[in-house]
Write a structure and sequence with these properties.
Strand order of the largest sheet: 3-2-1-4-5
Structural class: alpha/beta
Order of helices and strands: EHHEHHEHHEEH
Shape: globular
Strand content: 5-15%
Low-confidence stretches: none
Radius of gyration: 15 Å
Helix content: 40-55%
Length: about 150
Amino acid sequence: MNVLLDINVVLDVLLNRAPWVNEAADVWDAHHQGRLNAYVAAFSVPTIFYVVRRQNDLTEAHQAVRICLETLEIASVGRSTLELARQQAGSDYEDALQIASALEAGVDAIVTRDPAGFAQSPVPAITPAELLAQLPLENPPTEATE
């Protein structure tokens, strides 16, 4: 399963935000275990840097970016993404840009704590808990080749 992580889920992990950090961390762990492929939209990375710097410090902000780049797949954002976002219904351009990024990356779902913000999305928006409920507990064993 391929998913795009909304910025709130990424920040829950990076800033250890209770009470959401446990489910968000479980999503990251599932990505590390190969049970899903987690993406973050490229435009979210500078915002993550900004928020972490404001709440912590410059060193933590740089570390947050490093973690995102080393851990997650990056959904590119170009002119076509920006145009697609402009065509989305709704008044929140950032959410529309998440939707457009998800569409262009071809993911199965957007993982967010705010599914209501994605009510018009053609890509299903689910919470971390809903995603975790859909995943197998572990990777299926691979068949040995002879």
